[in-house]
Amino acid sequence: MNQNDLLNLTYASLGQAREAMTGMLKERRRDYSLPAPLYNDPHMFRLDMEEIFQKEWLFVGMTSEIPSRGDYFTVEIGQNPVLIVRDADGSVNAFHNTCRHRGSRVCTEHRGKVANLVCPYHQWTYDLKGNLLFAGTEMGEGFDMKQHGLKKAHCKVGGGFIYICLGKEEPEGDFDEFLATLDEYMEPYDVENTKLAVESNMYEKANWKLVLENNRECYHCAGSHPELLNTLLEWDDTNDPRAPQDFLDHYARQAAAWDAEGIPHEHKSFGLRNRIVRMPLKEGTQVMTIDGQEGCTKLLGRIKNRELGSMRILHLPNSWNHMQSDHFIVFRVLPISAQESLVTTKWFVHKDAVEGVDYDPARLRQVWDATNDQDRVLGEENQRGINSVAYQPGPYSKTFEFGVINFMDWYTDTTLENLEK
Ligand code: 3BY
Ligand code: FES
Ligand code: FE
Q1: Locate the Rieske domain: which residues (predicted)?
Q2: What span, in angstroms and rounded, lies between the C-alpha atoms of 43 and 102?
Q3: Distance between CA 283 and CA 211 in Å, rounded?
Q4: What's the CA gap between 74 and 95, in Å, rounded?
């Protein structure tokens, strides 16, 4: 089953799927993994796309990837090509990347720079605000250019993070509050003066929810992530109920230093969807490199202390992040089909840092390349086992997997709410 097969789902079968999904979500045993169709069935996938990925806020990238006027990158949200572009006034716009003539994708590259947005098919030309500027001379009398601008997607920025929403309306909730907190917590990093150092795109044969579930717990870390565990502490939060006293003491010492420097660190939650917390790394380590020592000679923004731990920023449904002293790492998950996902990881450094002098991209990416690949294998094995006729939902640990429980509660409640809208 690939993306194109999804388009062949009939209206009748989708209606039935909607009912089946509602039933499964209402009847599901809380604190248990989901029934198999929610992980492997193309109808359920299509509904995930409609109810979550086409209605909720999604993380797409960082503002410093498009530093100046006309810089853009493209992203595919399931069947929906989207383009993110820096406007002349410095703001960031998101458009559906589909031409208002006959629908061709307008920008066909992964990223680039343009003066205007020109469709490759018949050269209809749009400005950076999506207004149609030129449609040749063949469109005849009465053709209204104003009615044929690119369709906008909602787009908001906080602390350098760009989020889009493909829904007609923005979802209700406390998203603006989350963005304001991101501004505050990201201030020390001066994101506009960072640059993308290296990027990885990993294809994973697993449903997007399995990718997220895997990220939301560290139950699997000891068994799978030797490189990451050189620096990462397995506790998921500073208020993790399992955290022992020596962790709490280590945290208290680091937090005192952070407070003295005005580095925000306190846990902030916005429902189950968004969370920010700065977590210490293992004693004596600075960043998530293989030996825990510096990844880049230049510190980010106004940062002076190399031991800033990692500020973890969670955004459901599709992103987690690690913000450290000399580089930060952002993660984005995009569903491809019921059993395929794309995991993109990007490492950012100070914009004046020189590759090969101040940082080595191979060293920066080493730990998370290994970790991502280990997680890919776990996700793919998880998917294959779930596809078995013998699979039945199994129990999450309330202590080790509370992050997974939170994610599943968010997913269930949000999907049910959106299905009913
Ligand atoms: O570090 C992360 O992003 C997550 C949290 C715990 C397990 N996993 C590796
Ligand atoms: Fe874009 Fe024709 S489809 S100009
Ligand atoms: Fe992992």
Answers
A1: 57-164
A2: 28
A3: 29
A4: 10
Helix (H) or strand (E) holding 346: strand 340-350
The identity of residue 220, as a single letter, is H
Asked if residue 320 has its Cβ within 6 Å of ligand 1, the reply is yes
Substitution candidate for ligand 2 out of 95, 121, 126, 151 with most atoms within 8 A of CB = 121
Q: Do domains 1-56+190-420 and 58-165 have the same CATH topology?
A: no
Q: What is the pLDDT of residues 163-200, one digit of tens each?
A: 999 999 999 999 999 999 999 999 999 999 999 999 99
* Cα distance between residue 18 and residue 50, in whole Å: 11
- Find out if CATH 2.102.10.10 is the number for domain 58-165: yes
Copy the structure tokens of residue 278.
């700065």
Extents of the domains making up the chain: 1-56+190-420, 58-165
Q: Tell me which ligand sits closest to the C-alpha of residue 106.
A: 2
- Structure confidence by residue, pLDDT tens digits, 82-92: 999 999 999 99
